[in-house]
Amino acid sequence: MKVLYFAWLREKIGTAEEDLPLPPGVTDVQGLLDWLRARGGGHAEALADPNLVRVAVNQTYVGADHPLGDGDEVALFPPVTGG
Amino acid sequence: MKVLYFAWLREKIGTAEEDLPLPPGVTDVQGLLDWLRARGGGHAEALADPNLVRVAVNQTYVGADHPLGDGDEVALFPPVTGG
Amino acid sequence: MIRVQREDFDPGAELAALTEGDHGVGGACVFVGLVRDLAGEGRIAAMTLEHYPGMTEKELARIDAEAQERWPLRSTLIIHRYGRLEPGERIVFVGTTSAHRQAAFDACQFLIDWLKTKAPFWKLEETAEGEHWVEAKDSDDAAADRWQGQGGG
Amino acid sequence: MIRVQREDFDPGAELAALTEGDHGVGGACVFVGLVRDLAGEGRIAAMTLEHYPGMTEKELARIDAEAQERWPLRSTLIIHRYGRLEPGERIVFVGTTSAHRQAAFDACQFLIDWLKTKAPFWKLEETAEGEHWVEAKDSDDAAADRWQGQGGG
User: Fold this and answer.
1) Which CATH architecture has domain A2-77?
2) Cβ contact A6–D49 (<8 Å)
3) Taking CB atoms and an 8 Å limit, are D32 and C28 in contact across chains?
4) What is the per-residue pLDDT across A26-36, written as a single tens digit (0 to 9) for each?
5) What is the ipTM for the molecules in this complex?
6) How many domains does chain C have?
7) Which of A75, A78, A83 sits opposite D55 (nearest CB)?
8) Is residue C150 part of a domain?
9) In this model, does residue D71 exceed pLDDT 80?
10) Largest CB tally within 10 Å, which of A35, A59, A80, D38?
């Protein structure tokens, strides 16, 4: 699975992209967020406030209960500020 | 007093502009409209439906009770359709 | 600013001038009205815009001042043409700029709504069936009425 | 139509292209967003727009399609830039054309409102006090929310 980070999430985590195998026991977005937070450090800090984290799977917005597969592109980012 | 007509009011009345002395007994816009209608012909026809006549005195929209003086520029026209 | 003219205008150049050198502008909204070749039943060959010289400028300036009072605008421009225009030709330009997009949008819409119901212009359409004066639309009155008593932001 | 690009654009040329040769257009509405040099407290030296290549195009196309479904539009164009931009520079262009002005206005406003809350762009501002990420505004969410369940005309 590919995980992408943008804006200050990227800066706090310290990388724009990670290639991960689907972690054991993780079946949906909520599971992945919990697993990433449990890694501590920048991940825990960046993902601390769920209200400030938006999630896209395969470039489409999804909710916390969206299922995940090993080939998915998951993107985590703060609320958008374009326009 | 100068009286101007625009659009189909102008066409029905047959002139764009008349110079008139303030008719005797006429003190306001309503009085002038009644007086013009009483002239019959194109005037009566053009001014038949008060809902379709807008009035400006000295280039400002006014109501039927607006007072008139001999030096005024009075304009009568249909609802506007610009833009 | 307002302009009443027979000549065409360049919307891009006008828009550029509205924002030129003012770094306080966050958003610019522009509306351009054009002559359509279809209006209900008949095909329109052209239209002629009659206006009331003197009062037109006065009304547009009044409407412009009203918008500036209601919204925190950086600049405004209204251009309205008169004379004979063919399908595809530009009739009117309304441009507004503001620090914030909502003010620019609202003021631009207000200006065109008011202009449609207050500026002394009349359209004479030429169709295959002959000439006829365009009738004022209730929807335009309704559009203008929604701004009554409604302040800016 | 949508475009995501680093380069500047010419609003006048884009507007002209939106109406070119289509005599069914009665009104064109354009919004251009620019970099302001003041945002709250600090002076802005520049900003950098980060985005999510791939998803950006997808979201803009989805928003564009949504507008076309809600309103009877003749043409639409969204251009959004990314990269480093200085005060006065153009960020975004939204243009809509329709037979009737209200549809053009509503669709244009809808597009910019949705774009502000859905398109994956993030602004990093450079000020005298350093760099900081712009926070999303509740007012933008509110602006986008008003289109929920509201149809076109």
Assistant:
1) Roll (3.10)
2) no
3) yes
4) 999 999 999 99
5) 0.92
6) 1
7) A75
8) no
9) yes
10) A80
